[in-house]
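Final paragraph of the annual report: two paired records, presented back to back.
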Amino acid sequence: MLRILYTILRNIFHLYLIPLMRYVGKHPERYPEEKRYRLVRRLSRLVTKAGHIHTAYYGIENIPEEGNYILCANHQGKFDALAIVNGHDRPCSLVMDYERSKLYVVNEIMTLLQGKRLKRNDVRQAMQIIMEMAEELKQGKKFIIFPEGGYLHEKENHLYPFKPGCFKSVQKAHSTIVPVVLIDSYKAYKYNSLRRVYNSVYFLPPIQYSEIDGMKTQDIAQLVQARIANKIAEVTDLSQDEVCIDLDPGIQLI
């Protein structure tokens, strides 16, 4: 919380961006996707700099130069989406929990990105979003998704099981998957401190649709999770057996 308050104070003279984002978001017909995305990245970089957050990027050359794809990442905290956006220069959208997507500033970002607001436990709405994503992917759009479905700060660099339903739109649109590994991203807002924090983002080699054609969503989820888990084990002090942990059914993710 301290870092968030400090970031707001440091950017007091940039607060005009919020009403600007709100206005631009309400008029997508006047502002192309590229311009809206640049506005989001501008805010994201201001937040990152003011918050003393330092991110190292690896594997940017693995990001496809054309075609549709889904950036599929592990989830650690509030900074995750911004960390990916900062390192991804082509416009993309985002899938987020409905309630959290309505938070101040987050709402403006979601509107600019024309993100998908997913209501938990609403199966009909989830299917509608899957269909919308599939159609937009076919048109060349790109999405960031977090297949764990949420996070807890305590899990740090561990992984919870990936939800197979996240990959239904991939099947319908025959999309490429780009696994994204976030390391120490949770540190940005976990601690009540203003000390510099360092995190890393790894864009792994893409999984072409030809590799997963005919596979069930459960198998796709396990494949993507395994590749992310292997990278986490490679760059941290966790063993492969320690990376993936089970989630208590009674625990609600953030």
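The closing record of the year follows.
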Amino acid sequence: MTMALIDRWRRQAPWVGLGLAGIGAGLLGPIGGIVGMLPWTVGSAASPKNPKSDHPLRQRILQTLEGNPGLAYRELQGTLAAANGTLRHHLDVLIGRGDVTVMPVNGRSCHFAGHPAQAYDLRGVYVGEEEMRRIVEQHPHGLSLLQRLIVESLTSVDDIRSQADLARSIGRSRTSVHSAIKVLRRRGIVDVNRLALAPHLCGDRNQTQRPIDYEWDDERQTA
């Protein structure tokens, strides 16, 4: 636990390492200064680059976020059943290395595996940070329990005609459902004109095969 705290201080406040190095130099002379710097320089260079050789909990964090992008901290902690201090330490390491990205979504800090440019699959199209945040806002990440219930209901049930019907089907009050839908519409997750998911979340349910919408030139030589 002590080493974990020291490692966290080193990453969040590099001046701590320099201060300890200065103390070593004052007590033991030039050799003490060199010795005082060793734990910090070695620790920086020793961070594993191969995910398979990384700490097991960090591997589990990445695997969990890959399968469930946008988890808030408490949701991630509950999924992993990890101690608060231990999880924060390893999560800080992953964030510092750029392996995990934290984005504010709907007033919550949501965690995604990978660099910000990998938080959403754009099929090779580069966008800026603000555009990335807008895209993430329009996808069902970082939702409250009620908002998730609404999205799941709109995904699985096709004949919900009113907010009252929706409230009865999920066992919540009409007022709370109305407020949740208002937030979902503002984020672009629920359609503004009807009680349904936004078009970019619906997918092609009734389309079995997507037509080719680009020119295809088969340059292979036929026999």
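Confidence is low (pLDDT under 50) at residues 9-50, 119-127, 204-216. This concludes the annual technical report; the extension proposal builds directly on these records.
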